[in-house]
Amino acid sequence: MMATAETTLKPKQSILQSSAAQKLLAFAALIVIFIVFSLLSPFFATPENIVGILLATAVNGVLALGVTFIIITAGIDLSVGTVMTLSAVMTGLAVTIAGLPVPVGIVVGILTGAAVGLFNGVIISRMRIPPFIATLGTMMIARGLALVLATIETGTIKPIYFNDTPIFRQITMSSILAPLIEPIIPGFNFPNAVLILFIAALIAAFILAKTVLGRYAIAMGSNEEATRLSGVNVANWKTAVYALGGTFSGLAGVMIASRLNSAQPALGVGYELEAIAAVVIGGTSLSGGEGTILGTIIGAFIISTLTNGLRIMNVPQEWQFVVTGLIVILAVYLDILRRRRL
Asked: Which of 87, 138, 147, 316 has the least CB density, counted as fewest CB within 10 Å?
């Protein structure tokens, strides 16, 4: 009898409220966007343009992977774009000026991102500074450090080029899968950057679903106080989450430096907004406690596909920002409606 009453009182969860349905809707939106732009422009669905979309998604997607963990904890990180830039500059300094081997330079870049993420985690979890303010401050610090470090060799702010290290560009722009893909799709270049994105996504999915860090991230986002009362050291685990987010930013820094064949010290502003947008569009709730890596990857592809399509249609950049902003607002509003009905 009690079970019957509970069943009666508990509202039924509609298909639109489930996590799987959200991912399906996001994927359907991606397909619709692709079809619409393909019909509107004969240049959109060309192999060269698709490769451009993949490359644009690779960097933003890796950034978004780290942001996913942070937003799942009900936090935010506004510094990921400039941390990416700082990591790229540190990689450039290590490889071109210090003359270290490329693998060592890559490690330096990734560790730079991890260190800044650790700094974010400490000031947020230990000093109790709100994530928005803490990471806003870190964003400015990272941007300033990138500009300062870029003046070491020349005394003026200039990009750090990797022209004497051609292997560095091959990290993202060559294709180790070309022998497999070329016979199937002639002329289609599947760059290593996309392969790195997918490998990073698999690692992130494993961490979120199969490790203590992933479980505690979800628990903290769902109810941080209850998680603390259950004996979990929330400060330590939250610090670890931000350090993980910084690690992905470091990897993105190495990737964008390889793609551009240079470390651009003024680059990075605005990337954090695209990464956050990808996470939100992919179904991760800004209220915390819920999110998936697959949804984030789909969200990243939606952002890059939409931006690319609008650019091909010669839509002014300011209107591209307007469209992206409206989509983010819509995604957040849909999440609010879904949570109200749970």
From this structure: 316
Helix (H, G, I), strand (E, B) or coil at 326: helix
User: Please, what is the end-to-end C-alpha distance for the chain in angstroms?
Assistant: 23
Label residues 69-100 b or e (16+ Cβ within 10 Å = b).
Answer: bbbbbbbbbbbbbbbbbbbbbbbbbbbbeeeb
Global model pTM greater than 0.85: yes
CA distance 210 to 231: 20
Element at 263 (helix H, strand E): strand 262-263
With left for phi above 0 and alpha for psi between -120 and 50, is residue 283 left, alpha or beta? left
Looking at the domain 20-29+43-341, which fold is it? Answer: ABC transporter involved in vitamin B12 uptake, BtuC (1.10.3470)
Backbone dihedral region for residue 77 (phi beyond 0: left; psi -120 to 50: alpha; all else: beta): beta
Lowest mean pLDDT segment, chosen from 51-65, 170-184, 295-309? 170-184
Summarize pLDDT for 284-307 with one digit per residue, the tens: 988 898 899 999 999 999 999 999
Domains of the chain, by residue range, sit at 20-29+43-341
